[in-house]
Amino acid sequence: MNRRSVAVALLWAAGTAPLAGAAAPPGEVDRIVALWAAATGGMDRIHALAAVRMTGKIAFGGGAPNPFTVEVARPGRIRTRVTFPQGDWLQVYDGKRGWIVSPFAKSPVAVPMTPEELANAPEQADIEGPLVDSVKKGVRLALEGKEQVQGRDAWKIRVTRSDGVVRYLDLDAATSLKVRWEGELGAGADKKMNASLFSDYRTVDGLSFPFRIVSGIAGEAPAQEIVFEKIEVNPAISPSAFEAPK
Fold first, then answer.
1. What average pLDDT does the chain have?
2. N or C: fewer beta carbons within 10 Å in the chain?
3. What percentage of the chain carries pLDDT values higher than 70?
């Protein structure tokens, strides 16, 4: 695995379509976000989500799957672990600082995240996602119309973070669930548009989660596949899990 962070998109995660590029009717984005919230389990359940633990397997480039765990907890903390034969790869963000430990490095010690990784960490650690309380988070949402995603109509929402970085979320027009995330990852000449596709939705404690996520450079064959075997809602996670790795 190279230096790039494992990108994990989590929970967030009818009508006549406006033409692409045309201004959406007032309130249309709010209406579609409300449909998404209802399909996901309701805003009350989403707001009550204090922590989530997801365990399963992750495979890179069609290789053998490796055990994988990601834990997210309020306020804005995330810990990701991939177990390779060589040892554990860890990525930890405590809400302010982040570290990575790689068994492939010359010295398996905690290394601070790069500025680009640190800038993206709060997005990955947002347990609700940008569609929830977007105004409070300084996130701007704009409806860009409909397009086909894996042969199905989907609403395309442009998400502009408070730092100006732009992402795109596609919501299935029939189910209102998230089907695709797109955004640039990497730094400098390595910056490329990446995409994650979400499928195999299942309900856990009243909330809908995708149990399969495939990711990679947009327009190319997926380079990463995550298949969750178990998702726990509001598990007990010790604050020490998000401290700097020893």
1. 88
2. C
3. 89
> How would you classify residue 164: left for phi > 0, otherwise alpha for psi between -120 and 50, otherwise beta?
left
**CATH of region 28-242, choose from 3.90.330.10, 2.60.40.10, 2.50.20.10, 3.40.50.150:** 2.50.20.10
123 close to 110: Cβ distance less than 8 angstroms: no
Could you tell me which of 27, 7, 5, 37 has the C-alpha nearest to residue 226? Answer: 7
Backbone angles phi, psi at 103, to 5 degrees: -70, -10
Domain boundaries, the chain: 28-242
At 147, the amino acid letter reads E
Tell me the pTM.
0.87
In the predicted structure, residue 123 carries a pLDDT above the cut 70: yes
Total number of residues shown for the chain? 246
d(CA 162, CA 139): 5
- Looking only at the bridges linking them, the beta strands covering 87-93 and 98-101 are antiparallel
